[in-house]
């Protein structure tokens, strides 16, 4: 039996970030990850990117991985929000929140490499990869797990199990937890385009009758496109030639960044809201997509998962310093109190935006356009909205303030 203070199922961006955050806190940590790290390769034109809020940047700084991400992260210095075919629009800028950027767009490849490099240098973190959870059993004071690691079956024991194993979480399935599971009858078509007049640092969110169309600025004058369409339209969009797709996108988006010249391969993902009703169980905590999978409108999914990381890391570190039970009722109650509001409220907000802006009812359309115009003309309201989406409002954990956990005593 291998004894650990903490076992994390899932060593991706969320689970890996938690392990990085707790490295150096005197804990023995195991990370169980099914997918081996990709071989080093040159980045492709259309590589997958993630929108990071300002608050997420501070968390990544505090856990020590931001310096490796920053060179390939494109700042978002303005967000332009509009309603296609109508007069409503608003603009958010860093001056609304007193920061240098509202957020960043970073390649997932770069983020993953930075986290893996940090874990490789952490003597108190053991990465079991490729490995899969076979089963687990929750006892009064421990969680016992069986993990298939290559040809070997390992038995692990820990006072706290953290599930960061994605939207199809094996831990959630084994616990048979109740979830809210809403299908939007929409898909997100993801691709990369290059326009002839890119606007450096400007992100666009355009609401259309089929869902939001987002353009996120990337390095080299590229934009990552997230085009929400009705599920019955997806096959036709994917089947278009590159020229026909660019023409359709141009008609949908307009010419705010000029004419689209080049497009990468297209991929489509079904959209849904999955919200675990009780992500905190005896000696088990679900974080990231294992706890909540959101509609991509406003780019909140990964940022919400990083806020899970910041809060859980602080609770665990405080319990460890006090010599308390890391998976005991007191620690889990503290984490539940911290995250019990942000998770459902962010899920409700993204769900509301996804539904309200596709509703063609005339009074609702007029109201939302008036609201956007009013927001654009009211700096205090813009400030509150910017803070909400930047992840810097309310009571913040140390990591969300940019302070590493090992420096916590300096602030006590």
CATH class of the domain at 2-76 and 99-181 and 273-357 and 389-401: Alpha Beta
The CATH architecture designation of the domain at 2-76 and 99-181 and 273-357 and 389-401 is 3-Layer(bba) Sandwich
Task: Report the sheet with the most strands, covering strand number, pairing sense and barrel closure.
Answer: 9 strands, mixed
**Span between N and C termini?**
37 Å
| Residues in helices, as a percent range | 25-40%
- CATH-assigned fold name of the domain at 2-76 and 99-181 and 273-357 and 389-401: FAD/NAD(P)-binding domain
Bin the strand percentage.
25-35%
Fold topology:
Elements: E1 2-3, E2 6-9, H1 13-22, E3 29-32, E4 49-53, H2 54-62, H3 66-69, E5 74-76, E6 78-83, E7 89-92, E8 103-107, H4 108-120, E9 125-128, E10 131-138, E11 143-149, E12 152-158, E13 161-163, H5 170-175, E14 179-195, E15 202-208, E16 211-217, E17 223-230, H6 234-239, H7 242-253, E18 260-263, E19 267-276, E20 280-281, E21 284-286, E22 292-293, H8 301-321, H9 329-339, H10 342-356, H11 362-376, H12 379-390
Parallel strand pairs: 1-12, 2-3, 2-13, 3-9, 6-15, 13-21
Antiparallel strand pairs: 4-8, 5-8, 6-7, 10-11, 11-12, 14-17, 14-18, 14-19, 15-16, 16-17, 19-22, 20-21
Helix pairs in contact: 1-4, 1-8, 8-9
């Amino acid at each position: 039996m291998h004894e650990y203070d903490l076992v994390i199922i899932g060593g991706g961006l969320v689970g890996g970030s938690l392990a990085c955050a707790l490295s150096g806190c005197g804990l023995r940590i195991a990370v169980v990850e099914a997918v081996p790290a990709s071989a080093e390769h040159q980045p492709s034109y259309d590589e997958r990117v993630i929108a990071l809020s300002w608050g997420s940047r501070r968390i990544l700084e505090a856990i020590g991985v931001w310096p490796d991400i920053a060179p390939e992260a494109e700042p978002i210095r303005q967000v332009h929000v509009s309603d296609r075919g109508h007069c409503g629009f608003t603009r958010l800028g860093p001056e609304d929140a007193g920061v240098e950027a509202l957020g960043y767009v970073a390649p997932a490849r770069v983020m993953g490499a930075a986290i893996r490099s940090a874990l490789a240098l952490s003597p108190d973190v053991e990465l079991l990869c490729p490995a899969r959870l076979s089963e687990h059993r929750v006892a009064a004071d421990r969680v016992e797990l069986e993990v298939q690691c290559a040809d070997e079956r390992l038995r692990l024991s820990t006072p706290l199990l953290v599930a960061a194993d994605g939207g199809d979480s094996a831990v959630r399935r084994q616990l048979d937890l109740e979830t809210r599971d809403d299908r939007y009858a929409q898909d997100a078509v993801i691709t990369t385009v290059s326009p002839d007049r890119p606007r450096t640092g400007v992100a666009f969110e355009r609401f259309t009758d089929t869902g939001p169309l987002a353009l996120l600025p990337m390095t080299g004058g590229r934009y990552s496109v997230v085009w929400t369409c009705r599920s019955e339209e997806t096959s036709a969009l994917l089947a278009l030639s590159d020229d026909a797709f660019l023409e359709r996108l141009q008609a949908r988006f307009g010419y705010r960044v000029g004419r689209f010249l080049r497009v990468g391969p297209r991929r489509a993902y079904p959209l849904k809201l999955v919200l675990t009703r009780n992500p905190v169980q005896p000696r088990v905590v679900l974080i990231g997509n294992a706890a909540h999978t959101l509609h991509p409108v406003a780019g909140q999914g990964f940022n919400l998962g990083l806020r899970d990381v910041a809060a859980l890391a602080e609770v665990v570190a405080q319990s460890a310093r006090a010599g308390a039970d890391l998976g005991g009722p007191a620690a889990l109650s503290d984490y539940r109190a911290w995250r019990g509001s942000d998770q459902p409220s962010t899920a409700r907000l993204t769900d509301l935006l996804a539904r309200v802006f596709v509703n063609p009812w005339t009074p609702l359309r007029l109201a939302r356009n008036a609201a956007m115009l009013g927001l654009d003309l009211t700096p205090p309201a813009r400030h509150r909205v910017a803070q909400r989406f930047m992840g810097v409002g309310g009571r913040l954990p140390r990591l969300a303030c940019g302070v590493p956990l090992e420096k916590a005593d300096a602030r006590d």
